Amino acid sequence: MPHYVYILKSVSSDKYYIGSSRNPYRRLSYHNTIEKGFTSRYRPWELVFEKEFSDKFIAQKMERKIKSWKNRQMIERIIKGEIEI
């Protein structure tokens, strides 16, 4: 079953959030309404990037790789399509 890596951008604070899910649009809704953790402080969020992977394991591995970079410029290059993940 396909799984996605997605990147959200906070409209209010110019922060990014990286995650993975089978349905990134449902997760976006969750982050904008229900979530009580990190994402609740920076609402509203918009989906700025998504990429499909063949399974959950591969998507989660890519999510961890992007998060390990801890580099805003790299995230922005992914969004612009300058870096292929």
Describe this structure in words.
This protein has 85 residues and is an alpha+beta fold. The protein has helices at 24-33, 56-69, 72-80; strands at residues 3-10, 16-21, 45-53. The protein is 39% helix and 27% strand. A three-stranded antiparallel β-sheet has the order 2-1-3, sandwiched between helices. A hairpin with a 5-residue loop joins strand 1 (3-10) and strand 2 (16-21). The longest helix has 14 residues, at 56-69. The chain is globular.
Structural key phrases:
85 residues; alpha+beta; GIY-YIG endonuclease; three-stranded antiparallel beta sheet; 3 helices; 3 strands; 39% helix; 27% strand
Can I get a quick summary?
This protein has 85 residues and is of the alpha+beta class. The protein has helices at residues 24-33, 56-69, 72-80; strands spanning 3-10, 16-21, 45-53. It contains 3 helices and 3 strands, in the order E-E-H-E-H-H.
